[in-house]
Design a protein that fits this description.
Mean pLDDT: 90
Structural class: mainly alpha
Number of domains: 1
Strand content: under 5%
Helix content: over 70%
Distance between the termini: 48 Å
Number of strands: 0
Oligomer: single chain
Radius of gyration: 14 Å
Order of helices and strands: HHH
Length: 62
């Protein structure tokens, strides 16, 4: 198993983590990558904000 992730795989794990819990080794690999990659960290933050916004969308009508 490769320890170092490239950005493509980091994005895939980040999206996967939003739908289901990751295995411990996937979480570790993603966290290690995010420590050194500002671009992927921004991607995760933007995706998190987008998901929160989408969850709240429609609730405003209630």
């Amino acid at each position: 198993m490769k320890i170092k992730l490239d950005c493509h795989h980091a994005h895939r794990l980040a999206v996967k983590s939003m739908d289901a819990p990751l295995a411990w080794h996937e979480r570790l690999r993603l966290r290690m990558h995010l420590l050194v990659c500002d671009m992927c960290t921004s991607f995760v933050q933007e995706m998190t904000m987008l998901r929160r916004s989408m969850r709240g969308w429609g609730r405003e009508d209630e």
